[in-house]
Design goal:
The protein is an alpha+beta fold and about 525 residues long. Helices cover about 40% and strands about 15% of the residues. It has helices spanning about 10-20, 45-60, 105-115, 145-150, 155-160, 170-180, 200-210, 215-225, 235-240, 275-290, 300-310, 385-395, 410-415, 415-440, 450-475, 480-485, 490-505, 505-520; strands at about 1-5, 65-70, 75-80, 95-100, 250, 255-260, 275, 290-295, 295, 310-315, 320, 325-330, 345-355, 355-365, 370-375, 375-380.
């Protein structure tokens, strides 16, 4: 099902004004494959975009999606596809979804508002405003507000993960930041980029502290209201009251199931706010408009420029500003030729990945284009499939054909539920073999059988515990609780595996050794004591 709005394509006045500003001359020689920075998107591109997204929903089986495109301060395209929940309610551009990490740009706006008000200084240590703030490393005293905004605090995701929690109370944000006192630092503050949601949770608490308002109330009053984001919400309860889209996860690589992944209030400033595609278009319009939306101003131009500036390198040509990744817009170039250095316009983007939600925001300041895409589902086993959709949206809007999807995840991530199932079957087989020996009353097995089972079962248990508590958290840069809660099909099998591997080994070993001790001697009589 598709719900579209293309009336804005005929906004002739806006188009003529843009053409007058941009000029009518032909592109420079040798640049035919690179669209002009101020080029207008044509109506045929929107039609191609809608056709592509509809096809992706059918191919991937994704339940619902909505997209909004803005340019030069105007919403130029809006479309929605599929369903918002199992009732069949249609997805619309006004339907709220869980944002995940695209929440961060909203928090960055709130932080820069407090910088403009003089209540926060970018290069002041966090402890200036939160004297009790501490990590399990004395270097934490050097972490500044700027470090948090640019993800250079030195914190790592694995040591600060909270995404497995269900906490919803108003005290959750401060409690979550205080809980970081036991978290280590992976590197010195300011040394290098290191993505961690906790950076933005601390920023949210800073805004709450210096403004004297709960963070959710502050964002609602000073960000959502002036930007007319009427379907945006800081809390799960408010989003549900506004008919938020249900989230879906891909189970066992086969079917999409409506899934309640945890969305704790602890992560409100980093991951767990809600918004619609249309409302996100308002945010993009304001940022592309140097902080102004209609008659409202949420930021001054110099603050917006600071947000856009990539002060830290992520890798290669990719940088990170304040809540935005930056890179050259390679999607605007024809793949048949290699663009020259500096030839491509700058792209600011951020993706949001949750166990049951995928969102994407993109801005091209040179052309004034902004894109907001929301999908009420996610495939945690292969998120690159939906990330390819994000990139292809940009390609289509710039007159390029969509590129084939390349799954980038390794076999362990793609088939992690198979690994978990194999572990569970192995543990159940071990349990059955142990019980078959222990419950055999008339005859006793040869000694080598229970002894072999004792050692092989302990090796299996040790492998399962190593995989769950050591390898997987390091591989996915998070903790076991998050893996169980955000990868629901994996968690379904891992929970009983952990129960068996933790609770059964000691009684099993003791009982099997006892069985060996009382086993009859080969001569037919019991062994002497």
């Amino acid at each position: 099902m598709q719900i579209g709005s293309r009336s804005s394509r005929s906004l002739l006045a806006c188009l003529l004004a843009a053409i007058m500003v941009g000029g009518l001359g032909p592109p420079a020689a040798g640049n035919a494959a690179i669209p002009a920075a101020n080029a207008e998107i044509t109506g045929s591109a929107y039609e191609a975009l809608d056709t592509f997204l509809q096809a992706q929903l059918e191919t991937l089986g994704v339940p619902g999606a909505a997209v909004v495109v803005v340019q030069h301060g105007v919403q130029v395209h809006s479309a929605a596809f599929g369903r918002a929940d199992n009732s069949g309610r249609p997805m619309t551009a006004q339907t709220p979804v869980l944002l995940a990490s695209t929440t961060k740009s909203l928090t960055a706006i709130a932080v820069m508002q407090q910088v403009e008000a003089g209540r926060l200084e970018l290069d002041e240590p966090v402890q200036t405003y939160l004297p009790w703030f501490a990590l399990k490393d004395s270097r934490a005293s050097a972490i500044t507000v700027r470090h948090l905004l640019h993800q250079t605090s030195g914190m790592a995701s694995a040591g600060t993960a909270f995404e497995g929690s269900d906490t919803q109370g108003p005290e959750a944000l401060e409690e979550g930041v205080r809980a970081l006192s036991g978290a280590p630092l992976a590197r010195s503050p300011g040394e290098a980029f290191g993505y961690a949601n906790a950076n933005y949770n601390i920023l949210g608490l800073l805004v709450q502290t210096v403004s004297g308002q709960p963070f959710g109330d502050y964002v609602r009053q000073h960000v959502f209201e002036p930007l007319d984001m009427i379907h945006s919400h800081p809390t799960q309860a408010a989003a549900r009251a506004d008919n938020v889209a249900a989230g879906y996860s891909l189970w066992f690589g086969s079917f999409w199931g409506q899934t309640d992944a945890p969305a704790p209030a602890t992560g409100m400033p980093s991951t767990t706010m809600y918004s619609s595609a249309e409302d996100l278009g308002h945010e993009l319009t304001a940022l592309l408009g140097q902080g102004r939306y209609g008659e409202a101003r949420v930021l001054r131009p110099h603050s917006v420029n600071a947000m856009f500036e990539p002060r830290v390198q992520v890798d290669g040509s990719k940088g990170y500003g304040m809540g935005w990744f930056t890179r050259p817009l390679v999607e605007s170039a024809d793949t048949s030729r290699q663009p020259l250095d500096g030839e491509l316009p700058l792209l600011l983007e951020h993706q949001g990945e949750w166990g049951n939600s995928h969102t994407y925001l993109a801005m091209i300041p040179a052309s004034g284009i902004g894109v907001a895409l929301v999908i009420n589902a996610n495939d945690t086993s292969a998120p690159s499939r939906l990330k390819a959709v994000d990139s292809n949206v940009l390609r289509i809007l710039h007159g390029q054909p969509p590129a084939p999807t390349v799954v980038q995840e390794d076999w362990l991530q793609r088939y992690s539920w198979v690994v978990a199932l194999a572990l569970l079957l192995s543990e159940l087989l071990s349990l059955w073999l142990a019980l078959s020996i222990l419950l055999r009353s008339r005859t006793s097995p040869p000694k080598w059988k229970p002894l072999t089972l004792v050692f092989s079962a302990l090796i299996l248990d040790a492998f399962a515990l190593w995989l769950c508590f050591v390898y997987a958290p390091a591989r996915f840069d998070t903790n076991l609780t998050v893996i169980v809660r955000q990868f629901p099909d994996v968690g379904l099998f891992l929970v009983p595996v952990l129960a068996l591997a933790l609770l059964w080994p000691i009684p099993r070993t003791a009982l099997l050794l006892w069985k060996v001790r009382v086993a009859p001697h080969p001569s037919g009589v019991s062994q002497p004591p």
